[in-house]
Design goal:
With 134 residues, the chain is α+β, with helices and mostly antiparallel strands. The chain has one domain: Thiol Ester Dehydrase, Chain A (Roll). Helices cover 16% and strands 39% of the residues. The chain has a six-stranded antiparallel β-sheet, covered by helices on one side. The radius of gyration is 15 Å and the shape is globular. It binds dodecyl-COA. The site of dodecyl-COA (DCC) has 19 residues, from helix 1, helix 2, strand 3 and strand 6. It catalyses: decanoyl-CoA + H2O = decanoate + CoA + H(+); octanoyl-CoA + H2O = octanoate + CoA + H(+); hexadecanoyl-CoA + H2O = hexadecanoate + CoA + H(+); tetradecanoyl-CoA + H2O = tetradecanoate + CoA + H(+). This is Acyl-coenzyme A thioesterase THEM4. It is found in: Cell projection, Ruffle membrane; Cytoplasm; Membrane. GO terms for molecular function: hydrolase activity.
């Protein structure tokens, strides 16, 4: 296992429990799905009452990255697209799920969905991750 994967002092904005301004995401794995949840507070908004889209993209990115990390695959996001389908109200519990779509040559093609409490889609992302040495 890489040193990075074992490093308990990492300060990842999205996942480190030690980052004072971080999102402190926690992940669970079920079959081929990596899942996290997040409730945006007022400090996470862009438009009044609506979660900032850049932050939503950060979370989608992270949940895809964690799918790979959990399998000890070190890879960085090389490209990512987010489709914002519905606004995310402040205070609504989001469920974010990622999965591998394909492993083509050096690239991992990933996708992720952010779901609102009623199961409707808030946002969908696709991304290409490139393996890196850590
Ligand atoms: C405790 C820890 C917790 C773990 C905590 C986990 C934290 C996760 C964090 C979330 C994830 C992130 O945000 S990661 C951070 C954001 N991402 C980054 O900073 C990445 C910055 N970019 C890079 O470092 C680089 O560009 C790489 C590594 C992506 C690729 O560089 P490279 O390895 O030198 O590769 P390069 O020569 O450019 O390209 C190799 C081949 O791939 C192709 N290629 C390159 N990019 C693409 C692309 N987007 N789509 C298709 N093809 C591409 C090229 O054309 C080339 O084809 P050919 O000529 O071979 O045919």
């Amino acid at each position: 296992m890489s040193k990075l994967l074992k490093d308990s002092n990492h300060m990842c904005f999205a996942c480190s429990p030690k980052n004072p301004i971080g999102l402190k995401l926690v992940f669970e794995h079920e079959g081929d799905i990596c899942r996290a949840s997040f409730i945006a507070g007022p400090e996470h908004q862009g438009w009044n009452g609506v979660m900032h889209g850049g932050l939503l993209t950060t979370i989608l990115d992270e949940v895809m990255a964690q799918w790979l990390w959990s399998r000890e695959l070190s890879a960085m996001t090389a490209e990512m697209t987010t489709r914002f389908v519905n606004p995310v109200p402040i205070g609504a519990k989001l469920t974010i799920e990622s999965r591998l779509v394909a492993n083509k040559r050096r690239l991992f093609l990933m996708e992720a969905d952010a779901l609102l409490p009623d199961g409707s889609v808030a946002a969908k992302a696709t991304a290409k991750f490139m393996p890196v040495k850590v």
